[in-house]
Design brief:
Alpha-Beta Plaits, TIM Barrel, eight-stranded parallel beta sheet, 34% helix, binds phosphoenolpyruvate, binds manganese (II) ion
Length: 375
């Protein structure tokens, strides 16, 4: 069972102390607290664990300090929706809002290569009023002899350039928990010119020790890629690992599944799961069309597959797009063949905006139809 406390109930209040006393007396029940950062305030949630079936929901909901009590399933205990429409979705980080109701574009380099390309990218984002980007410094490569990313060496100038162009959040994959400290130290040394969204790649979706390390810190939110060869349920449980350690600021990213059936795409595009993840959990949902499609193939009208699948995900309600761009794809050290060109940024953003408006309009159409049935 989950108790959501009223916002004014502090840990020092009488109501809180009495409530904890009440919980401590429940046989076979333990509790765990969780702070949820809402848009206006921080909410305290208390999870009652163990033998909770016998608890009288109405009685506990009526205790001073308790706003409401929800019966929850074991599945996705913190991140799940549990059929409660009022639960907070998302979070705010470094001035940028992430939720199931809004939308952000993270266009950028798959891998950081040189200052010229990073600066050209960030300049273009700034010109298009974008505050987020993707920049890979630690690259998980299939081949041990391939370029592994510049690692911590590039962080100072990447962060400084981000600050120069007003970039507030960089999605950056980490492959080891020591990278959290490297990023943190560098941000502090450079005076926090930007923020970092810790990306967990598809090869690490079930690296539970990495997930736990990221979940233990509260400074940075995370972006969890779906595992390429496991079920959706297993990937959502991986997200719950982050939350169960204390950090529920998690965005879930669909990036396609590895199967021959997806050919000629690099992965089988799985954006039909956008609404499924939104229904099962409170996480904002991101789509990665670049790693799903993996090429610059186009339809006969000239629209790239990367753009077409982005449209499909956004029309279905995606909250974020993570997409590879490169000023000179032939120079790119990783994934050049799937990168969009700088000249494609503006039309791509226009297309995405249109698709997002269509999603909002679709919601209106169906809600209107529903309210007419109710009349
Ligand atoms: C990436 O986004 O750079 C990446 C490596 O993606 P994935 O983990 O989905 O393959
Ligand atoms: Mn890549």
């Amino acid at each position: 069972m989950l108790l959501i406390l009223s916002p004014e109930t502090s840990a020092q209040s009488e109501a809180y102390k009495n409530l904890i006393q009440y919980i401590d007396k429940l046989p076979g029940v333990t509790h765990r607290e969780h702070q949820v950062q809402g848009q206006q305030q921080t909410l305290t949630e208390i999870y009652l664990l163990g033998d909770t079936k016998a608890i009288n929901k109405e009685e506990i909901a009526a205790l001073p300090g308790v706003e409401r009590a929800i019966r929850i399933s074991e599945e996705y205990r913190i991140l799940g929706r549990h059929k409660d429409e009022k639960r907070v979705t998302g979070f705010s980080y470094n001035g940028v809002q992430f939720s199931q109701d809004n939308f952000n574009v993270f266009a950028g380099l798959c891998a950081v290569d040189n200052t010229k390309n990073v600066e050209t990218m960030m300049q273009a984002l700034h010109k298009n009023h974008l505050q987020c980007t993707r920049m890979g410094a630690y690259k998980p490569r299939t081949n041990p002899y391939s370029f592994q990313g510049h690692g911590k060496g590039c962080l100072p100038w990447v962060f400084e350039l981000a600050g120069k162009y007003g970039i507030k959040v960089i999605a950056m994959e980490i492959t080891h928990e020591s990278h959290i400290d490297e990023i943190h130290e560098c941000l502090q040394k450079t005076g926090n010119p930007t923020g970092v969204l810790l990306q967990i790649g598809t090869r690490n979706t079930q690296n539970f020790e990495l997930l736990k390390a990221i979940g233990r810190q509260k400074t940075y939110p995370s972006l969890l890629k779906r595992g390429f060869g496991i079920t959706l349920n297993e990937s959502l449980n991986a997200a719950e690992y982050l939350a169960s350690e204390g950090n529920s600021n998690v965005i879930f990213c669909l990036r396609g599944m590895k199967t021959e059936a997806g050919n000629p795409h690099r992965n089988m595009v799985d954006f039909a799961h956008v609404p499924v993840v939104k229904r099962l959990t409170r996480m904002p949902v991101c789509i990665d069309p670049s790693h799903s499609v993996g090429s610059r193939e186009a339809d006969p009208s000239g629209i790239l597959d990367v753009m077409n699948v982005t449209a499909q995900g956004v029309v279905a309600g995606a909250n974020m797009v993570l997409v590879d761009f490169h000023p000179a794809p032939t120079e790119a050290l990783v994934d050049g063949p799937q990168a969009l060109l700088m000249s494609e940024l503006e039309p791509f953003l226009e297309d995405i905006q249109l698709c997002h408006e269509i999603y909002k309009k679709r919601k209106e159409i169906y809600n209107q139809a529903k309210s007419q049935v109710a009349k």
